[in-house]
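A reminder before we start the practical. When you read a complex entry, don't treat the lines as separate problems. The point of joint prediction is that each chain is placed relative to the others, so the output describes one connected object in space. Small molecules and nucleic acid strands, if listed, are placed in the same frame. In the example below there are two entries. Take a minute to note the order of the lines before looking further.
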Amino acid sequence: MTALETGLKDLPDSNPRTVGPADETAPLAVVDNVTKTFPRVTALDQVGLTINAGERVALVGPSGSGKTTLLHLLSGMAQPDSGSVTVGGRELSHNLPRRELSSLVGIIHQQLDLVPQLPVVHNVLAGRFGHWGVFRSFLSMLWPQDYPLAVSALHQMGIADKIQERTAHLSGGEQQRVAIARTMVQSPLLVLADEPVSSVDPGRAQEILHLLVGLTEDSGRALVASMHTPYLVRQFFSRAVGLKDGQVHFDIPAPELTQAIQSDLYGLGQEESALHHG
Amino acid sequence: MRPARPLLESPHFLSLLLLGAVAWSVTGIGWGEPLLHTGGGDSALDLLLALFPPDLSPSFLLVCLQAAWQTLSIALASITVAVLLGFPLGVMASGALVSPNSRLRAPLMISSRFVLGTLRSIHELVWAVLLVAAIGLSPLAAIVALGLPYAGILGRIYAEFLEDTPEDPLTALRSAGASSWQTLIFGRLPMSTPDLVSYTFYRFECSIRSAAILSFVGIRGIGYEIQLSLGELLFSQVWTLLLILLAIVALVDFWSGRVRQSLVES
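Here is the predicted structure of the whole assembly.
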């Protein structure tokens, strides 16, 4: 064996289809000593967090505490000023190819961000873009590719009958299901959701969280969502991470998250001044 | 009390200056001479009366329809050329196909914008004169003469529409693994289609008028017939031709409204 071949053998596997933890016990995602600063504000200050496969992590904390920034860094669409974010053994950096990134993490934004003019099927199949070349994408516009995947995802969301409908014609709740179906088709290791139930009524919140949890039920996946309601966190999540002023304030099993702990985190009462000066 | 402003900054000063200019311009009119030249009033009256009725004789209507057909086909062919040429240039000029930190971005955008600018900075009549000299008095000259500046206009506006699409859905597509091409096909294009189509229809309408005008360099069509009839002072024929032009433009307007509506509602 030549020196070159030996060297190649030692390289980490760079095939995007085989990304994932090297062994079952390795953490799925590691946020290592991450600091992120925006002009005049430190959004995250030396945050460390380890997420294992199978976990459902709720990020709680007042607005401005760094939840959204942490989700953005985990999604790989933003990079930390210092420290590192690793998912499935790959560091999320600028030069990580987009299609590889899409097999590691998927994010559902609060604003859903679907293309309203397109039929539902195309918004769902956007989750397959990482696997398609330019030609296949063109073809899909006329003749949707991987159609059965879209059908089965929408079926699980309970809106299979809407597949050909224009996305703009769907209700807010149906659009949220389309966004979840897209992430289901994308099938990332780590599913992120930014305030998934902040603007829906309690009944629908239960349904949506049920669907989100369903996304990560296969072994080897995890869910991270920013949340505000303690009883929903206790019901659907396994772990609650409290953020405050860009730092991890607590990291507890979800069943232990009480209203009192959350109120303390939100700086209600005497803590308010500390929040403003911190 | 407000502090007194300098005279030159007072809004009244500018108004007074403009009023003064208007008043002074009135003195420039030679009030001694009649406003219309001798017999001008009679000609204007003739022109107006010729509308009742316009020339509707079958033989002339046949001439009109043939001319209308020529003008319409030139307009349709030239807007097709303009779309085929302007669309790719517009996509390049919008920078939608190169990532923001690519080193190719600036050269590609600047060069395609330069081409578009050159195409539209030369008026279609000038293109026509140049092309008639090169190709001769053929419909091809007219089609190219209209197609080139219209490609410049369409490309420029297409680029703007493609750039102005909402950013959030595009970011969501990218985070799902979409490349620049995929973001274009499934994000920018569908979001701007109603605008792209309706602007193209508007330009098609403009190209009908332009095609009619091209007869001033000798290309057959409605404008050519108008020129002939005017030369022979056959005003009722001029009216027929103008009414037909009006009908065509109204028809295209109606059609574009229907298409746009179906795009927005479907």
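Discuss with your neighbour: Chain A touches chain B through 34 residues (CB under 8 Å). What might explain this?
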